Amino acid sequence: MHSGMTLIDLRSDTVTKPTTAMRKAMAQADVGDDVYGEDPTVNKLQDAVAALLGKKAALFVPSGTMANQLAIRVHTQPGQEVIAESKAHIVRYEQGAAAALSGVQLHCIPGDRGLVGADLVEAAIRPSDPHTVRTALICLENTHNGGGGTIYPLSTIERIRAVAVDRRIPMHLDGARLFNAVTATTLPAASYAQHFETVSLCLSKGLGAPAGSLLASNDLALIERARRFRRMYGGAMRQAGVLAAAGLYALEHHVARLKTDHDNAKRLARRLQHIPAITISPQHVETNIIVFDVPGHRLAPAALVAALKQEGVLINAVGGTSFRAVTHLDVSTEAIDQAADVFARVLR
Ligand SMILES: *Cc1c(COP(=O)(O)O)cnc(C)c1O
Predict the structure, then answer these.
(1) What domain of life does the native source organism fall in (predicted)?
(2) Does ligand 1 have an atom closer than 6 angstroms to the CB of 63?
(3) Is the shortest distance between the CB of 287 and ligand 1 below 6 Å?
(4) Could you tell me the pTM of the whole model?
(5) Which ligand 1 atom lies nearest to the CA of residue 211?
(6) Percent of the chain with pLDDT over 70
(7) Residue ID of nearest Cα to ligand 1 atom 10
(8) Is the CB of 143 under 6 A from ligand 1?
(9) Residues 6+ apart with CB under 8 A from 338
């Protein structure tokens, strides 16, 4: 890396740092002991997120993984089965928590860029039969991280919902990046959330907060059970209002600007398309995640990542010859153009 060069970090939208204004909101937060339910800022955030999602209540938790795992815990019994797409965060990136913490097995169905249709979901539901494992929950992810930031069409969700209602199976939405889908489609968050018994949401991705996720539901008893398991899992925090304040600030100031991340992602994808070594479908870049291939390059994926880093651009290798770049709050359009120049130079 050249001395004095600032890294353009496209590894993930989790690398954002709280802005000065966000830190000010955190410093000024009114706080209390949230295990006693007495943190006014946490309560305000929970109410705000519940309202945004059109749900009766929401529970603040440290991470998106915990929000997803609390949902699985409250919807299932040990020995049951949860339907999820093969590349889902719940399947790939949560350390097998569904098995370890809830004692359930995951029934993985392969999607097209992470999305599955109602027919595949219906086929995966086990018959009600004393021989077969019981299907207890259907999980969807919107936007889909492993699928490349794909947006679930609302019509597909509606068809899956009809199957789930017919078979009396609850649905959970991993909405870590739901606001990216909301921004891209201009559909209200509640129009997605209405089809799910529980919805998780991350404040620490594109929204730019340092930590925090929420689990929302219309079922107050279910939220109270999740609150008990949050304690069991070590996620009950005390003066968590300093984090909730960052979340409230993010919801107020960092949702509309996600459009800039999406525009930047498309801008980068169009530039990458002109580099012969790269295979990319810019039309598949729907939100802030860009997945592309560099097939048959002389450098192995890890060496290619290192060569880009040497020139000041950080990305992730995501298996095979695929790579992932993610745009976010801390990457300007100017930095995107600089990154595109680096890709062109390194892959020449
Ligand atoms: C990041 C992410 C999560 C949660 O991640 P944490 O790091 O535990 O907050 C859940 N689902 C998806 C799709 C994600 O991208």
Answers:
(1) Bacteria
(2) yes
(3) no
(4) 0.97
(5) 9
(6) 99
(7) 64
(8) no
(9) 8, 312
pLDDT tens sequence across 151-178:
999 999 999 999 999 999 999 999 999 9
73-100 average pLDDT score:
98
Does residue 197's CB lie within 6 angstroms of at least one atom of ligand 1? no
Residue bearing the CA closest to ligand 1, atom 14: 176
Q: Where in the chain is the domain with CATH 3.40.640.10?
A: 31-253
Give me the residue label for tokens 């699928």: 147
CATH superfamily of 8-15+257-347: Aspartate Aminotransferase, domain 1 (3.90.1150.10)
Q: Could you tell me the pLDDT band of residue 348, with boundaries at 50, 70 and 90?
A: confident
Nearest atom of ligand 1 to the alpha carbon of 66: 8
Band of pLDDT at residue 84, cut at 50, 70 and 90? very high
Would the pLDDT of 222 be above 90?
yes
Contact 169, 137 (CB under 8 A): yes
Q: Average per-residue pLDDT in the chain?
A: 97
For the chain, residues classed under CATH 3.90.1150.10 are: 8-15+257-347
Give the pLDDT confidence score for residue 208 in this predicted structure: 97
Determine if ligand 1 sits within 6 Å of the CB of residue 97: no
The H or E element that residue 291 is part of is strand 289-293
Supply φ then ψ for residue 149, to 5 degrees. Answer: 70, 25
CATH architecture, range 31-253 = 3-Layer(aba) Sandwich (3.40)
Average pLDDT over residues 133-154: 98
Å from CA of 145 to ligand 1 middle: 9
Say how far apart CA 331 and CA 262 lie, in whole Å: 12
Q: Is the CB of 174 under 6 A from ligand 1?
A: yes
Ligand 1, pocket-test mutation among 205, 316, 328, most atoms within 8 A of CB: 205
